[in-house]
Every structure is written in C-alpha cells, then in structure tokens.
Amino acid sequence: MSEPISRRHALGVTSAFFAASCIENKQLSAGIGQEEVKITPGSWSPGVALPFAAQEIYPCAHNNALHLAGGFIAENGRITGPTSAHRAWKPDSVSWAEGVGLPTPRHHPQLISWKGSLFAFAGFESPSEDAVWRMQSTGWRLLGQIFSPEGPSITVEPAWADAPELPEPCGEAVMGVTGDDVLHLAGGRTPNGEQNADWTDHGDSDHHFVLTEINGSWERAAPCLSKRNSAAGDVIDGNLHIVGGRTVNDGNVTSHEVYDYREDRWRTAAPMPKAQGGLAAAAVGEKLYAFGGEYFDNGGGVYPESWVYSATTDTWDALPSMPNPRHGLGAVALDNRIYVIGGALEAGGNQTSAIVDIFDPA
C-alpha cells in the first residue's frame, strides 16, 4: 500500500484503541549500516501530561510558556477530528491552563512566537468526512496574553485576530525566525490542482515565504533545495535548519538544508543518520535535537531514535532513545530543556497520546 493511502486511512476517523504504553529507555549503540554513532549523554523525565490526547501538532514557546493549539484529538484511541483547543503551560505548573480556542478547528496549524505575539498559520480544516485535509493559507495572531511574562495571571483578555495570509495554501512545513527577525515558512505540501480535500490531493513543495512586518505581506524567497513534507527544524545562530521529513512518492529522507540569512541562500549540511519523517526538533544553543517520526513499510511503526546535530562540527550523534517513541509530536526548547509533546505511539492515528516527556541535555 502506498504511503499516501496509508496516511489517509490512518489519519481519517479510524484509529485503534488508545493504550498509553511506556517503552523502556535503552541507551544502545546506534548502528547506521556498518557504522556506529556516538551516543551523547542526556536524560529523560516525565512532564505534565496534556489534558487530552493530540497529534499532528506544532507547539511553541511564547512568553516563557509552552503553547499548543489545534491538532487531531482522540477519545478512547479513536481520532474524532481536529480541535480548536488552545492550552498553555509554564514551568512548575501543575496543569495546562486553558487558553482561547482557535477561530476554527484545524490540524497541523503551525504555532510560532514572533515580535512579541503568538501566531498560528496554515494547516488543514475538516469540514466533512470527505474533506478531512482541506489545506489552508490563512493564519491568526493572538491579541493579549494567556500568561503575563512575569506571572501566571491573565492581564488582557486574549482573542485571535487575522494574520497576513500566505500566498498559497500549505501544510506540514517548517517555520522559524532568523537572525534578522524575519519570519520564514519553508517546504511542506500544497494542492496539486483545484482539488483540496484529501491527503492525495497535495504534493511536495520547495516554497519559501518570508514575512518582515506583523501587518505586512508574505513574499516569496529563495526556494528550498528539495521538495519534502513533514520535516522538522529550528534556528541555530540565526540560520534556519530543516531536517528529515518525507516525500509523497519516495518516503522518508535524511536531507538537512540550512537557510543562511547572512548570505540569503540555502546550503546543505550533514544529513540525518536515519531517514525519519513526521519527527520533531528543537534547538538549544548551537545544537539541534531531533526526535521520533514514523514509517509505513514492513507494517509501519515509529522511531525510538533521537539525534543531536552540532552546528560547530557539522556532525550528528545519537541520544538516549525516547521513552515513548511517537510521531506527529512537537518538540519545544524552554529554559535549556526540551519538551517532547503529544503524538501517536503507532504509525498513523493509532494510540494518539497526551504524553509529555522532557529531555535534559548533558
């Protein structure tokens, strides 16, 4: 069965029963072909779980808190569709605070903090069972704050307002803010034609859009070096790194591309040791940490492997394996810790989870 069909069935409304399982965290030598990859020390610990199971999410850090909005949610292991729910969590909080919901339920919306505001862009809406993957070009900006920067209380009643619309519908891309304080959206997928309702209606893209002002207009910038979706990335030393992902026709890739904002061009960097799509990544200092993902061949599954890339040496090392391997998850760096949020414990929509694991680099 081809990958697109697998994803359509898996991420429609049919999912298996939810059984939150904990997979033993083993520090094994990571073999890539005949080579061995050095394992960099670090430790995993459990975080405060989400109030609901969610996958296909792009959370972010904003005002010293974690924010999650949208995604696919599930009840008793069965995906019920996208949500508009917005939750936020500050370190040492005992639970996730309820924020103001998105104007419309949406899965794969990409959250990002920029110029002091929280934004949600692109993703998919599901107006009917026959149009679960209707890709969007619109986005929103949160006016007001769920948390004040100094304390836990709401200071201004928050509400979402329209943000600048992207030049075309897109989803499963990577976003970041480069050193010149420019917002970027790169890669992912766009509709192949007029049809825009199902996963198979979309194709991989190398598009690259930039936004310089909150109330400005998106502009097209230098395209990515390759077309792919479901990659991950973050910004190191002001440059946007995009790693892993997959193509609609050929599956997971190891590609690693870097947008150098000083030179206004893309270049290649050391590829990931293993091709992983549907993964998550976050940067701490000059290192990029990548987690999980899924595959569909040989019955399908999720990757327990985690990796760390050093921009100083242009090399990858292995990390201790994820305690709860999953895909469609988010990874957010906050206070030098990485919060690995939600996702599914099996390929597709099976065992969508509320798990939050915390990785502490050594």
Flag low-confidence runs.
1-34
In which range does the helix fraction lie?
Answer: under 10%
Question: What coarse outline follows from CA principal-axis ratios?
Answer: globular
Summarize the main sheet. Answer: 4 strands, antiparallel
**How would you write the strand order of the largest sheet?**
3-37-36-35
The DSSP helix count reads: 1
Helix and strand content put the structural class at: mainly beta
**What amount of the residues lies in strands?**
35-45%
The mean pLDDT is 89
Alpha carbon gap, first and last residue? 42 Å
Number of E-type strands: 37
Radius of gyration: 19 Å
Please provide a written account of the structure:
2% of the residues lie in helices and 41% in strands. With 362 residues, it is mainly β.
Write the layout of secondary structure elements.
Elements (H helix, E strand, L loop, with lengths): L2 H8 L19 E3 L2 E3 L4 E5 L7 E2 L4 E3 L2 E5 L2 E4 L2 E5 L3 E4 L7 E2 L11 E5 L2 E5 L2 E2 L8 E2 L3 E7 L10 E8 L10 E4 L5 E4 L2 E3 L10 E3 L3 E4 L7 E2 L11 E5 L2 E5 L2 E2 L3 E2 L3 E5 L4 E4 L11 E5 L2 E5 L2 E2 L5 E2 L3 E5 L4 E4 L11 E5 L2 E5 L14 E6 L1
Antiparallel strand pairs: 1-2, 3-37, 4-7, 5-6, 6-9, 7-8, 9-10, 11-12, 12-15, 13-14, 15-16, 17-18, 18-21, 19-20, 21-22, 23-24, 24-27, 25-26, 27-28, 29-30, 30-33, 31-32, 33-34, 35-36, 36-37
